[in-house]
Design a protein that fits this description.
Elements: H1 2-9, H2 11-17, H3 19-27, H4 34-48, H5 53-57, H6 69-72, H7 78-90, H8 95-98, H9 100-109, E1 117-122, E2 125-128, E3 133-134, H10 136-145, E4 150-155, E5 165-169, E6 173-174, H11 183-189, E7 195-200, H12 206-209, E8 218-226, E9 229-239, E10 254-258, E11 265-272, E12 275-277, H13 295-308, E13 314-322, E14 325-332, H14 338-344, H15 357-361
Antiparallel strand pairs: 1-2, 1-7, 2-3, 4-5, 4-7, 5-6, 8-9, 8-13, 9-10, 10-11, 11-12, 13-14
């Protein structure tokens, strides 16, 4: 009963979430017949138990869509994924990925390579990396002493790159509005309710600079852990574009499917709304046929890390690659499915979902924003 009412109440949330896609759908002229779309949506809603926003998100309404109804069923809807399926796999351990400070602490305890954390701002106080309260002057000294080219001020509970402030090294660390990073700036820009960590940016390997140099392009690697053994399910490269310094797909990024066995890129990249590109629009880098030469290093690193964080069944790893090798930028216990399913098609079978109805009957249920 609670799940049913939750899904009904969240339809407005998803209508806003898919606002751009819905507007595109409304304007699109070459749609299937209304009777066909109505029948297909009804079948999908009955199968998954929730309103089929995926029908619009993945362009199943287009006459050019060649998917059978069974293939449409393979596309997992967001509500099912984030409220019924993923919570069952991570149980109470989801907080490890939801809280960036906790993520840092856990990765650090296992000596898993990640960006350096300089300080934290919480409760209108500054803390050093060991969680000691420090003065504003001490915070300024830590910032000034950093030799990094970029610093990232990240909300500890942020999702999809939202709320991240990027500061580039000039004489001081400067953001795009020409604000200088300091304890005074942080104190005035953030409120008592805000909780942020400050991390050094990584310098990515030249191989990735050739693709797009203005963001740290990260490999999204999806892993499954069962009986202590980790497996890579899917992999993609997430790239910035148009001068953006973040690679998040939700922030107008670009993704390209990668063969998880050999690191070979797909022939096209995806930007949403069904738009595909054969090469990067900024650099002209051609995706087709490219093989990342250090893919075995990434595979080994991710498998090892996944087996250490063995309380979370499915993890989306965001991996940067530097001259010193791979590093974890972020982990996601309920990783985004939209660009994953753009690249790979429906992933229901890969996640072992044979009967969605049993998840509605399962007692494990969570109320959260995805």
């Amino acid at each position: 009963m609670w799940k049913y009412f939750s899904e009904r109440n969240l339809r407005a949330h998803y209508a806003e979430h898919y606002k751009v896609e819905i507007e595109y759908y409304n304007k699109y002229s070459d749609k299937k017949a209304q009777s066909v779309m109505k029948r297909e949506r009804k079948i999908l809603q009955k199968y998954w138990g929730c309103y089929p926003f995926q029908y619009i998100r993945y362009g199943m309404y287009k006459k050019t869509c060649s998917l059978s109804i069974d293939e449409m069923k393979d596309f997992i809807p967001n509500y099912f994924a984030y409220y019924l399926f993923f919570p069952k796999s991570f149980k109470e351990y989801g907080i490890v990925s939801d809280d960036k400070e906790l993520t840092y602490r856990v990765l650090d305890s296992y000596h898993i390579n990640q960006p350096v954390m300089l300080l934290q701002y919480k409760n209108e106080l500054f803390y050093d990396v060991d969680k000691n309260i420090i003065s504003n002057e001490d915070a300024d000294a830590i910032i000034k002493q950093s030799a990094a080219k970029k610093l990232f001020l990240k909300p500890t509970k942020g999702l999809g790159g939202r709320g991240i402030l990027v500061f580039n090294k000039e004489k001081d660390f400067i953001d795009k509005e020409r604000n200088s990073l300091s304890s005074e700036f942080i104190s005035h820009a953030l409120s008592k309710a805000d909780d942020y960590i400050l991390q050094e940016g990584l310098s990515q390997h030249e191989e990735l600079n050739n693709i797009y140099p203005k963001s740290v392009n990260t490999f999204r690697v999806m892993t499954s852990l069962k009986d202590g053994k980790a497996t890579i399910l899917f992999s993609m490269l997430r790239m910035g574009q148009g001068g953006n310094q973040l690679d998040n797909a939700s922030l107008m990024g670009l993704v390209c499917k990668i063969n998880p066995e050999n690191g070979k890129f797909d022939n096209i990249g995806y930007t949403g709304l069904g738009k595909t590109l054969a090469k990067h629009p900024d650099t002209g880098f051609v995706f087709d046929g490219y093989v990342f030469p250090y893919w075995d290093d990434i595979k080994k690193f991710v498998i090892s890390a996944s087996q250490k964080i063995d309380s979370i069944g499915f993890i989306g790893w965001d991996i940067a690659f530097t001259d010193q090798g791979p590093a974890v930028i972020e982990i996601n216990a309920g990783a985004g499915l939209e660009f994953l399913q753009d690249c790979h098609g429906g992933v229901r079978k890969a996640y072992g979902i044979s009967n969605p109805k049993k998840y509605w009957k399962n007692s494990k249920f969570i109320l959260k924003d995805d």
